[in-house]
Amino acid sequence: MLVRSKPPYPSIGSYRVPESFADSWKRYFHLLPNDISVMDRLLEAPPGSKVLLLGNEAIARAALEAGVTVATTYPGTPASEIGDALARVAKQAGIYFEYSVNEIVATEVAIGAATSGVRALVSMKHVGVNVASDALLTFAYTGTRGGFVLVTADDPSCHSSQNEQDNRYYALLGGIPLLEPSNPQECYEMTKQAFDISEQLELPVIVRTTTRVSHVRGPVLVGEIRRGAAKKEFVKDPKRFVTVPAVARVRHLVLLESLKRAEKASEDSPFNLVLKTGTGGSRGVITSSAASNYVLDAAKEMRISLDVLKIGFSNPLPSKKIIEFLKSHELVAVVEELEPVLETQVRALAQQASARTRIVGKANGVFPRAHEFDQAIVARGLAAAFGIGSLPKSVSSPDTCELPLRPPVLCAGCPHSATYFAVNKATNRKAIFASDIGCYTLGVSPPYSTADLLVCMGSSVGTAGGLAKVNELPVIAFIGDSTFYHAGVPGLINAVHHGHRFLLMILDNRTTAMTGHQPHPGSAKDPCGEEVSPVSLEGVVIGCGVKWMRVVDPYDLKTTVETIKDALAQPGVSVIISRRECALIAPRDAKGAIAKKQFIDQEVCKKCRTCVDKFQCPAISSIDKVQTIDEALCAGCEFCAQVCPHKAIKEAK
Amino acid sequence: MVDIYLVGVGGQGIITASKIIGDAAVFAGKNVLLSETHGMAQRGGSVVCTARIGEVSSPLIPDGQADVILSFEALETLRARCMSSEKTIVLSSMERVTPLSVSAQKLKYPTPEEVEVGFKGISARFLFVDARRLALEAGVGMSPNIVMVGALAGTGITGLPRKDFEKAIELNISRKLKGNLDAFAKGFEIGKRAAP
User: What is the Cβ-side half-sphere exposure of residue B12, based on CA atoms within 13 angstroms?
Assistant: First the structure.
C-alpha cells in the first residue's frame, strides 16, 4: 500500500525534477503516437522533394528555410506542433528555441532579437495573442529590422479552446500585414514569404491559420534550409525604438505610411488570385483561408461555374483587385469563417467605388457567423446566394444519439483525479471552485464537478478573490503548474496584498500536459536537453508573500484531505501545492505500474459504486453491476484502494 | 477520389495510421489531405481522422460520403454510421474500449451483432477484423492499428500499391519494424475479403 508519509519531492532547494523531457518521451514511447520516425522529415526532407507535413510542421520548415535565428512560443492547441517541431530540431538546425513562460514574453524575446536584425518567429494559439497584444500593437509602431513573424492558430468551433475569436481583427487593430494560408503548402509558402514582407516593410507580419489548416497534413514541396546570422549588433535608435509619447506620435504616422506600401505589396501578391470553377462567369466569390477550400469543393460537387477571388494577403486588402472583381461581376458572395472581416471591407470598397454589384454574405444571413464551416454549409450558402445549383443530395443521418458518449476524461492514474476526489471529500462539495486552463478543467464534469468559473489562463486566482469577497461559501482556486507560471503569479500577489481569503491549489504535475508535455520554468532541462535553472514553485509562492503553504502528494488521500481542511481554516490566502508527476510521464515498473496494479476482490465488494460514482478512472468499469479493474489500463497508482470504503480493492498479484 | 474516415479512441494510434496512408499516397504521387483531432478533444475521447486521396481542396469528408470507414473500436464504428452510404466499405476492429459513461450512467455497450446490424441496408460491405489477435500473432501486440492499415490496403480501394504502404510503415515506425510489416500483411489478407 502506498501511503507516503512525505511528499515525493520535498522542500525548496532539493527539488527532484524528472529526467529530461526528451528522455521521458523515449521511455514512454508506447504511450505516445509511434511517430518518432527514423528520419526526421522536417529537417531531412531534401530540397525539391514533396513531403507529407502537418500545416504546423510546414510553418516550422518554412522558418528554417527562411533562416530564422530565434523562435519562441507558449504551447496551445492548435499551434503547439510549430514549437514542438522546432524544439525537436533546434540544436541540429543551429537555431535558438524556447518555450517561453507566456505569449507576451515569447513575443518580447522575439522582438528583442528581430530589432537587432535577425529573423524571429513566435507562435501561439488565438487567445495567446490577447496576452501578447500589448507588445504586438506597439511593436507595429517601432517596426522591425529582421523579419518578424507571429503565427496565430485560430480555433473556429472551439475544438480545444474557451472561445472562437477571430484574430484577423488584430491585424486591423494594429495595422499589421496579415497572411492567411488554407493548406500545408500555403503554410509553407506564406510563412517563408512573410519574413521577406516583414523586412521589406519593416513591420511585423501575422500568419493566421485555423484548426483545419494547422492540423491538416498534405504534401509540401520544400526548398533549401539556410542558417541565419547567430549574432547581430543592436544599433541604437531611441527615436524609433523607445516609444515615449513624442516618439509614438511620429511612429504612428510612419506606420500609416508603411501600410500604404503594404497595400501595394498586397495588390501585387501572388497569394491574392482569381480561380475558376467550371467555366467561371458572372457570379463571383471572394473567400479566404479554410473557407476557400469548401468553396472549391462545393462548387465542383454542385457543378456550378464561379470566379473565385481567393485572398491570401488579407491585410491590407488589395483594394484595386477587389474593386475590379466587383465591377466585373453582378453578384458576389463573400465566404469566410467567423467574423465578417472581409465582407465589411468589401462592402466599404464597393460603396467607395460606386460598384453596383450585389454582395451577399453574413449581413444577409446567408452564411453563419459562428462555428467552423464545412462543405455542406458552404454548399447551402452558395445555393442560397446564387439561387442556382442543385444542392448535394441530403443524406438522412442514421440516429446515433442513443450510443454511449465518450467525452474526454482524465487518464488512469491522473493525479488531478486524486486531488479532486480529496477536495470533494474535504469540503463535502460545499465550496465554489474557480478553475483554470489545462487537463484539470476536465474536473468540470461529474463525478467531480470541481469547476464553477473559468475565463482564461490564470483567471482562477484573480476570480477567486472576487468570489471570496462576496460569497459565504469557501472558495478554492485550481491552477496547473505551467498555467501558474504563465499568468497566476500576479493574481497571487494581488490576493496576498489585498487579503483575499481563499485556497489556491497548484496542481503540479511537473509538465505542460494538455498540449503534449512541454517543459515549463519549473523544469530542469530545456527541450534540447540542456540544463536550465528550474524556478521553484515554493520559492515563487513564498516570494509572493503567502504565509501558509503546504506541499502534498495527491496519491495520499488522508493527508491531502486533512491539509485541505486546515487550509480552509486559514484567515487569508492559503496555498497547497498538490505535486505528482503526470501519469503519462511518471516512471513505471516492468508491469507498467507507477506503484502496484490493483484488482477488485468480488467477495469483499459491497457494490456501493463509490469507485465509479464518486471517483473516475478509465481502468475501472461497472458493467452489469460488477465493478472491475482492467489490468492493462490500470496505472497502478493505488489511489482507488484508498477510495474504496470496504477495502475491496487490493494489490494485483 | 477516395475518402477514408478513420475513427477510434484517443491512444489507439489513429494519427499514425492516417500518416501511413498519407505517406503511401505521396509515394504513389497522389494528392492527399489528412485531418486529425488533437488536444482537449483527445484524452480518451472519440477521435476522428480523415484521409482524402485525389484532387480535393478541403480535408473534411461530407456526411454519407466516406468510401471506407476504417474503425479501430467497435462502438466508434457504430457512431460513424452517418458517414456511410451504399458505396461505403466498413472495416471495423473488434477491439472494445468501454467508455466511462457506460459505468457512470448504467448504459449498455452494443454487442458485435448490433454493430454489424447497424450498417445493414446502409453500406455496401461490413468486415470485422480481429486486429488485436492478429497483431499479437505478429508479435506486435501494440499495433492493431497497423493490422487495420493492412486491411485497408488489402481491399485495394485506395488504388495505392502495397509497396508504398510498406515504405510508409518503414518511415513511420522505428520499433519492431519486421513485426509491424507482418501485422500489415495479416491485415492485408483479411482486407481482400472486403475488396469491391
Answer: 32
Q: pTM here?
A: 0.94
- Contact across the interface for B19 and A217, Cβ inside 8 Å: yes
The C-alpha cell at A123 is 507562435
Q: Which domains does chain B have, with CATH numbers?
A: 2-194 (3.40.920.10)
Burial class (CB in 10 A: 0-12, 13-18, 19+), A275: middle
Q: Quick check: B62 and A375 CB within 8 A?
A: yes
In this complex, is the C-beta atom of A279 within 8 Å of any C-beta atom belonging to chain B? no
Q: Which of A217, A607, A624, A626 to mutate against chain B (most B CBs within 10 Å)?
A: A217
Q: How confident is the model at residue B65 (pLDDT cuts 50, 70, 90)?
A: very high
Tell me the nearest-neighbour CA distance from A84 into chain B, angstroms. Answer: 14
Q: Which of A41, A371, A406, A518 to mutate to test the interface with B (most CBs of B within 10 A)?
A: A406
User: What residues of chain A, 313 to 372, have a C-beta less than 8 Å from chain B?
Assistant: none
User: How many independent structural domains does chain A possess?
Assistant: 4
Q: Are strands A313-315 and A178-179 parallel, antiparallel or unpaired?
A: antiparallel
- Assess if residue A14 is contained within a domain: no
Mark whether A547 and A486 lie in a shared domain.
yes
Cβ of A217 and B110 within 8 Å?
no
| Chain A contact for B3 (CB, 8 A cutoff) | no
Q: Please, which residues have CB within 8 angstroms of residue B36's CB and are 6 or more apart in sequence? A: A215, A217, B14, B15, B18, B47, B49
Let me know if A339 is exposed, middle or buried by CB neighbors in 10 A (0-12, 13-18, 19+): middle
Closest chain B residue to A626 measured between Cα atoms?
B103
B103 and A33 within 8 Å at the Cβ level: the answer is: no
From residue A169, alpha-carbon distances to A75, A138, A313 in Å are 22, 15, 14
Q: Do B23 and A410 touch (CB under 8 A)?
A: no
Q: Are residues A501 and A548 in the same domain?
A: yes
How do residues A146-193 score in pLDDT, each as one tens digit?
999 999 999 999 999 999 999 999 999 999 999 999 999 999 999 999
pLDDT of A73 > 80? The answer is: yes
Q: Which residues contact A258 (CB under 8 A, 6 or more apart)?
A: A143, A175, A201, A202, A203
The answer, for B120 touching chain A at a CB cutoff of 8 Å, is: no
A60/A186 same-domain check: yes
Beta carbons of B19 and A292 less than 8 Å apart:
no
| Sign of the CA dihedral with A196 first, then A200, A203, and A205 last | negative
Q: What share of chain A is helix, strand, coil (3-state, %, to 5)?
A: 40, 15, 45
DSSP code of residue A101: S
Residue A635 near residue A593, CB atoms below 8 Å: yes
Distance from CA of A170 to the nearest CA of B (A): 25
Q: Which residues contact A473 (CB under 8 A, 6 or more apart)?
A: A430, A431, A432
* Nearest C-alpha in B relative to A80: B39
Residue A492 located in a structural domain: yes
Chain B: nearest CA to A315, how far in angstroms? 24
3-state secondary structure at position A86: helix
In a domain? residue A228: yes
In tens, the pLDDT along A300-309 reads: 999 999 999 9
The ipTM (two decimal places) reads 0.96
Q: What CA–CA distance (Å, rounded) separates B177 from B166?
A: 10
Instruction: Grade residue B40 by pLDDT with cuts at 50, 70 and 90.
Output: low
SS3 A128: helix
Q: Is residue A96 part of a domain?
A: yes
Q: From CA A274, how far away is CA A573, in angstroms rounded?
A: 60
Question: Cβ of B58 and A392 within 8 Å?
Answer: no
- Of A234, A266, A298, the position where a domain reaches its end is A266
Measured between CB atoms, which of A290, A374, A408 is closest to B42? A408
Task: Please give the average per-residue pLDDT across A486-497, as a whole number.
Answer: 98
Q: Are strands A503-508 and A475-480 parallel, antiparallel or unpaired?
A: parallel
